[in-house]
Design goal:
This protein is of the alpha/beta class. The chain has helices at about 5-15, 90-100, 100-105, 120-140, 155-160, 195-200, 200-215, 240-250, 260-275, 275-300, 320-325, 330-340, 365-375, 400-415, 420-430, 435-440, and strands at about 40, 50-55, 60-65, 75-80, 110-115, 145-150, 185-190, 350-355, 385-390. The chain has a nine-stranded mixed beta sheet with strand order 1-2-3-5-4-6-7-8-9, sandwiched between helices. The chain starts with 6 loop residues before the first helix and ends in a 37-residue tail after the last helix.
Length: about 475
């Protein structure tokens, strides 16, 4: 239930909100047979003589399938990140294919889907990925091995799939099942803390940012609950949000051009939230548009987020900051609904190798600690391997890292040893010079991430806070 000071705004906004979509079933019923893909000219930048097929399946998902000239017999099925908002497009998949051309260069076929819809639908996205795998098998024949690869938010899609998709296909005209659909799962820079925990840093950002800057929303704008991201009818643009952050902090300007007050506010935000300056605008934009997607469209204007009980520290006056910070109370039914779709259970059924850059500014490496604990508690620790690299980006690690990881995963799935950071570094260093191992092999064998709670505070019980109410003149959003 919303706190009393949210109820008037929430009532009006909920009436205007889009209806939420129901969660997909645990495994979709057998779909109607989709149309066969068509031969297409490949996007630019792919290896010479690559064969490309494309189409749109009967549920509306666009896809590309690409096969190199000397195919290894391995098919890599890709789950992309985001989630993207808006209608699915082939352009979204084209960008994925061009980014992951390393799989083609390594001799493997690649298949990627736009998903049938934009927005946060983890289980439905998994169904879309597996439907594309079946389309690829129909078009190419049964692969020798199949690897499922999830990147960023797509890693959460692939992690949920690793709990479910192991039943062999029975193709039309067959009486016996074929091989199991996937041999192993590769996760890279994954958002693996679960939907009910992975977004806490953005909940904290919205709340602390408003306490510090008070311009999202501005005092002269309609009040709305911060968990909504922005009202359904808002015409705010990403440039508008970036400008508001810059007005408050000067983050888009050289340090010398910021005022003393701007620098103080920027220092407060980066210290309290443990975010680099470069990631501040991006995270706030996600905490605007993606929060609206989650709460309005998916959950019918209900809030799954909370920051109750969180004590923020790192400012010049933490007590004053915590008195100003708006507090969000979760609707527990909405939170449970989000968890059913977006929280991994840890019950992995397939060999799963997770790679993560240590200084990833988007999906914090500490999420891997949370995922490891979830898998261990589910009794599947022997099916999870994790390795870490000296990388500070989110979108891509290195060609050498991915090539060595896929090779190690396939060996593991075939009965070899479970890989670790040391084994991956050794394998990576042994790659031919064409993969540039001297620069691309950045595995850190000894690294283990700290608990997620050391980076993003745990949420407390939903009880009244010990802080006094806001001082006069402080406007609660």
């Amino acid at each position: 239930m919303a706190p009393p000071f949210f109820r008037p705004a929430l009532t009006a906004l909920a009436a205007a909100a889009l209806l939420s979509l129901s969660l997909p079933m645990a495994r979709a019923a057998a779909p109607e047979r989709p149309a066969a893909p068509s031969e297409r000219i490949c996007p630019s930048g792919l290896p010479e003589a690559t064969r490309c097929l494309s189409g749109r399946d009967h549920l509306g998902a666009w896809y590309w399938i690409a096969v190199p000239k000397d195919w290894s017999g391995v098919l890599v099925v890709h789950a992309h990140g985001g989630p993207s908002l808006g209608e699915p497009t082939l352009a979204r998949v084209t960008g994925d294919l061009q980014r992951w051309k390393v799989m083609l260069q390594a001799g493997h076929a690649w298949a990627g889907t736009s998903y049938r819809q934009g927005g946060f639908e983890v289980l439905a996205a998994g169904e879309d990925v597996d439907r594309l795998r079946r389309i690829a098998v129909e078009a190419l024949g049964t692969p020798r091995r199949t690897v499922l690869h999830g990147q960023s938010w797509g890693a959460s899609v692939a992690a949920r799939m690793a709990e479910r998709y192991i039943t062999p296909d029975i193709r039309p005209g067959q009486t016996a099942p074929g091989p199991q659909p996937y041999d192993g799962v590769l996760l890279s820079n994954g958002v693996l803390a679960g939907a009910t925990r992975a977004y806490d840093v953005r909940v904290d950002l919205r709340a602390v940012y408003q306490a510090v800057c008070n311009n999202h929303p501005r005092p002269d704008e309609p009040v709305y609950p911060l968990w909504m991201g922005m009202p359904p009818e808002s015409t705010l643009t990403r440039l508008d949000v970036a400008q508001r952050v810059d007005d408050c902090t000067g983050v888009q300007r050289p340090r010398a051009e910021r005022s003393a007050e701007q620098q103080k506010r920027l220092d407060t935000l980066t210290r309290v939230l443990r975010l680099p300056e470069s990631a501040l605008i991006g995270h706030l934009q996600w905490a605007t548009w993606h929060f609206r997607e989650l709460t309005v469209r998916k959950l019918g204007a209900r809030n799954p987020f909370t920051n109750e009980g969180v004590i923020y520290s790192g400012s010049d006056d933490d007590a004053a900051l915590n008195r100003r910070v708006p507090r969000l109370r979760a609707d527990l039914a909405a939170r449970a609904e989000l968890a059913r779709d977006g929280d991994p259970t840890g019950r992995l059924l397939l060999p799963t190798l997770a790679l993560h850059g240590i200084d990833d500014p988007v999906a914090f490496v500490e999420m891997e600690s949370r995922f490891r604990d979830t898998v261990t508690e589910a009794g599947a620790a022997e099916r999870l391997a994790q390795a870490y690299t000296r990388d500070a980006g989110h979108e891509y690690l290195s060609d050498a890292a991915y090539v060595s990881a896929v090779d190690a995963l396939l060996d593991w799935a075939g009965g070899g040893a479970r890989p670790d950071g040391a084994a991956l570094e050794q394998r990576c260093r042994a790659l031919p010079s064409t993969w540039n191992p001297a620069q691309g092999c950045r595995f850190v064998a000894s690294y283990q991430p700290a608990a997620l709670e050391t980076r993003v505070p745990m949420r407390g019980p939903q009880s009244p806070l010990e802080f006094p109410p806001p001082a006069a003149g402080i406007r609660r959003p």
